[in-house]
Amino acid sequence: MATNGETTVKKKKKPKESSSESAEPKKAPAPKKPERLVHLKIRRQDAPDKLETRRWEEFKVPFLPQMNVNAALQQIQKYPETTEGKRVNPVVWEAACLEEVCGSCTMIINGRVRQACSCLVDDIAPNGETITIEPMSKFPLVRDLIVDRSSMFESLKRVKAWIDLDGTHELGPGPREAPEAQHERYPLSRCMTCGCCLEACPQYNDSSKFIGAAAINQVRLFNLHPSGAMHKNARLDAVMGPGGVADCGKAQNCVEVCPKEIPLVDSIAVVARDTTKRLLFGWLLK
Ligand code: SF4
Ligand code: SF4
Ligand code: FES
User: Fold this and answer.
1) How remote is the CA of residue 257 from the centroid of ligand 2, in Å?
2) Dihedrals φ, ψ of 147, to 5°?
3) Does the reported pTM lie above 0.70?
């Protein structure tokens, strides 16, 4: 650094001595590490009615740190080439929140129904094992890994999974509630309509009308709410008929697979008890 006003002169580096004694032997270049690859085997189908296009396709994509299945699918989207070197249409799937909140990326991964965005490659294939991915089987297929979960939303309509409003005018403060009541409701409110519970439920299939654990849980949730309780009976009536809570076989698969750890079996028991009471004493309690 110049401190006395004179021009700074950079010191020239001394040329290296060329003595053969002082020169270090050249190191051989380190062998390139083989890139870690993620091996995916994916069930594909081009359209709901094109059964003839149903097939498995395999892909290998570069591993990325903290990679989840959603990120692996994104890699395929960038380079849709199978392990046989065939260029194909990119695999399609749904995803929105990427943090296990919306439920849209639900699929069957290595035989278990779960969300692609919260399924880490390191957890399920730490040694490069093949990851098998299929669409959920209990909902109509749209394409590849996308299914139509409309039936779940229809069930929410059936059980009136909302709080009615009289209007948009000022209604004043809502009813006061004990924290214990709020704590009871909170776990029930975490449902993201992902469909895992229906996929795993033996009672939910093409030949049954069973509404499933998710909608029954919503009956409990909204009936616990002080304002929601005003329509308690309408919700109970909705699950008392065919396909209602009595169709549950109590296999408890639903609670095993629910990613939000909702106490579904408890909800089913509570709603079943309430429907029984309504059946026996409904005329009295009207
Ligand atoms: S307890 Fe069994 S039959 Fe009932 S909703 Fe859950 S998985 Fe289905
Ligand atoms: S109850 Fe659980 S498994 Fe079923 S839809 Fe809701 S979050 Fe998914
Ligand atoms: S993207 Fe929303 S749950 Fe996976």
Assistant:
1) 8
2) -125, 165
3) yes
